[in-house]
Amino acid sequence: MSEESIYESLLRKGVSRRDFLKFCSTSAMILGLSSSTVPKIAEALEKKERPSVVWLHFSECTGDSESVLRASKPSIAQVILDIVSLEYHETIMAPSGHAAEKSLKDIITKKKGKYIAVYEGAVPTADGGVYCFIGGHKAIDICKEVGSGAMANIAVGNCACFGGIPAANPNPTKCVGIKDILGGTVVNLAGCPMNAENFTAVVVHFVTFGTLPALDKHGRPLFAYGKCIHNNCERRPHFDQGQFVRQWGDMGHRLGWCLYEMGCKGPMAYQNCPTIRWNEGTSWPVQAGHPCIACASPNNWDDAYPFYKRMEGVPGVGWQANADKVGLGIAAATAAAVAAHGIIRAATRGKGPSDKEEGH
Amino acid sequence: MAKLVVDPVTRIEGHMRVEAKVEGGKIVDAWVSGTMWRGIETILKGRDPRDAWLFVSRVCGV
Q1: Which of A18, A293, B35, B37 is positioned for an S-S bond with B15, CB 3.0–4.6 A?
Q2: Most B CBs within 10 Å: which of A68, A96, A132, as the mutation test of the B interface?
Q3: ipTM, 2 decimals?
Q4: Rounded to an integer, what distance in angstroms lies between the CA atom of residue A85 and that of residue A165?
Q5: Does B43 touch chain A (CB under 8 A)?
Q6: Which CATH code, of 3.30.930.10, 3.40.50.700, 3.20.20.70, 3.40.50.720, is assigned to A6-225?
Q7: A79 pLDDT band (50/70/90 cuts)?
Q8: Which of A215, A242, A229, A219 is nearest to A345 (CA)?
Q9: B3 reaches A (C-beta below 8 A)
Q10: pTM, 2 dp
Q11: pLDDT tens column, A149-178
């Protein structure tokens, strides 16, 4: 642990008391906790030292680091860097080469059992793990060494959680998620990239209560991944009305209608994008007019694929086979219901702006 | 002759190693290697071209 408390660190960076309390309230909201927990969160952040974090990169694109570095609440980008003491992070640290290796060794030795390990990227296992080397060491060996001494392991982004893009068929380097290497409890902050607000919330939960939040069967925190995107989607009323985008740029697309027919995988996807959104709560993919690609689901690069094809799941057209493939019983059943519903609604929809009016 | 090795190179996206041959205080030869490979080209084979951007935009997220 570093010596400075989180609150002291924020004060030093010019964050006001008001912004600090706003941050505590936002964290409680994201975690799905009642407002009565806000004082508890505030007290913990005021008094407790910042947890040390070792952030590792394996087979990845650094998109999750970018996601964190662009975080904005309460009002500053560095708040996440202030609620944790980031001891090792290759993208933003000053030392290179031997000095970088030494700082990693020092941290995991001196703070053994007292640091949080964050992993970005999958671990390649093909050919003995030769497809990712850092400082002359294989990713798989670094993962095991750092993971064994961590007090908590957090995988950020779908690559670290489930293998992600490098694990997409045919998975040339036989990439796997961190949990497949370490076993035990790994918090999977899924998504491509993960949402920084959820990362902050997990850290706040850990600092306040000393425990990790409740996880689903895929290791994802329930507060962030407990609800189906389709059920919270702002375009849902259009789905219920049978108002679907049929072609890019058609009238429905311009009016913000449902993207299900264009391949939206919202009905199989679980994440809090519709409520938390991105970029200071500005927007999220569906709001911007693009179908959801279920980026927080395991194997989405194959199971939610093709991205621009309507989800399979029409009863009588092999939806059960699809359910086995997807391996998400509830999601697949939802998909079937959704597909049936979509057809009925499309057949019975009332008069409204149609594609024919496009030229007006 | 001294050999200089910098690995990892930090403040970049991805993983990189630099080796340099130094003679008389000057670099006379150098090798740079990307030390991570995911095979995204291989993963793209046989897929719908309309989906390609979603994969290749994730070659680098910075």
Answers
A1: B35
A2: A96
A3: 0.94
A4: 29
A5: yes
A6: 3.40.50.700
A7: low
A8: A242
A9: no
A10: 0.86
A11: 999 999 999 999 999 999 999 999 999 999
